[in-house]
Amino acid sequence: MNRPTIILGISAFYHDSAACLVRDGQIIAAAQEERFTRKKHDAAFPKQAVEYCLLAGGIQLAGLEYVAFYEKPFLKFDRILHSYLAYAPSGLKTFLMAIPLWIRERVWMKALIHHELAGFNGKILFPEHHESHAASAFFPSPYPEAAFLTVDGVGEWTTTSYGAGSSNKIEMLGELHFPHSLGLLYSAFTYFTGFRVNSGEYKLMGLAPYGEPKYVDVILRELIDLKEDGSFHLNMKYFNYGVGLTMTNEQFDKLFGRGPRKPESKLTQSDMDLARSVQEVTEEIMFRMARHVRKETGLKKLCLAGGVALNCVANGKILREGIFENIWIQPAAGDAGGSLGAALFAWHQVLGNERKADGAHDSQRGSYLGPEFSRDEIRDYLTNNNIPFTELREDELPEKIADLIKAGKVIGWFYGRMEFGPRALGGRSIIGDAQSPRMQEVMNLKIKFRESFRPFAPSVLSEKCAEWFELKEESPYMLLVAPVVKSRQREMTAEEKKRFGLEKLLAIRSTIPAVTHVDYTARIQTVTEDHSPMYYRMIKKFDEKYGCPVIINTSFNVRGEPIVGTPEHAYVCFMRTNMDYLLVGNYLLEKKDQKPLDKDINWLKEFELD
What we know:
The protein is an alpha/beta fold. Helix content is 34%, strand content 18%. It has 20 helices and 21 strands. The strands form four sheets. The protein has a nine-stranded mixed β-sheet with strand order 13-21-20-14-15-19-16-18-17. Strands 3-2-1-4-5 form a five-stranded mixed β-sheet. Helix 7 (182-192) packs antiparallel against helix 11 (269-297) and helix 15 crosses helix 18 (533-546). The longest helix has 29 residues, at 269-297.
């Protein structure tokens, strides 16, 4: 019997470090380091994520044959040096901060990996950053052949790439290079509107529907020279990200007649208009890129990865435009997914191993690739800490939770394996009633401790999706936005239509108001029984009893904190919020039965707000 080939993929040192284990081409485990260290977007070497992956695979470091790091350090260092030389004498301060670290550690990545993985004696491979993104997009997809498009901030030099995948190979056909980057353009506006770069971009996207696109012409005239094929050049006189400590500069301030918003200060109509404007520009660029990729490749399927692929609004509009027949998006589309892509690149592209794709089912297994806890482990934690609970049988759990949702309760749902990627998909979720007109405000302000404008996503039974949303594609990873069907929408009054800015929040727009955005759309997760059986059965029971196959699903965390990873994380989060119930495996905890936590820590001060 042949010994299996085991490959460890690693991404690290920019943001969202992660590890992934692949055995004979099958994804065994994957997780972000932040879930273990509790440091949001942790960029450090993913020691604990690696330990988890090895444990999940049942192997020691000595059993690894390959480690695949998600980018080429020397090529990235080349870009950094050239950038500082191009901007000199500007950027001296950041040069003196960055270069010693690179010379001391990051250039010598092989030595660092051997140091961190003491006992590993195999080969180390270094695909390019966008090769890792492309591999993460195509290889796990259900398609035997497809085009791919990867768009992010920057890898080594590349900021955007496209190409074609067929069988077990991907081929790059075109690239855009730094400093011309759609991801960095979007991040510049993220910074300018007062949110944190590399974590606040989704807030900017959520803010966009409250504004007007009044700055689109200014952006297209002054900031970007956009071509018909989606290629572009940025006017760098307005940006400072080349070597500076900020994303934008004084010229950018003058262009928009203001400076950057101070974080945590009140949002203005200007912030909302800027968000709407850059979102529309982003969508237009993605449209043009998609059309060009279709024309150049002639392929009918598209795979997406890179941080910009998390822009689910743009993804949904590309799908509705009909440029491609089908779209598949890597659920860990950002740098964390680079670990998975690097491992699969090594297995297929470097080692030449076969890839099987049936056209219907991806190989990412619902992205439930993180740790899980047995009943005994959970029970031991609860009993050892004198935590009151009720144990539910498998057959009674779905109905019990469905009844609590209908009663207006907010429930922490911790069940099965943790999700890989930024979205909670029914493994580490907070759930509630999508039909409640107050639930969005309650969950934002009393549970999540975040801005009131932030929308929530619906989990919907896959077979019932078309009855509620105008979506023609499965969306298991919550990466497509689509309108609520007309029959479920509510026509607004003349007075409601006059509202602007955050006042738009006050109007109910559909029969599922808690998950309906102000533009009548929703960020949808379609749920099937094969990947998440208990979550599916619970929603199905809710539909059978109460006539609605849709519930709220938001990530199990509070603002500034990573998604919970263990029963202890879940319990502490539950106790420091206004959640009513916590389900951990088959054990149900009610808030009123719990004793106060031993250590009285102000939740909002303990974690750094983003």
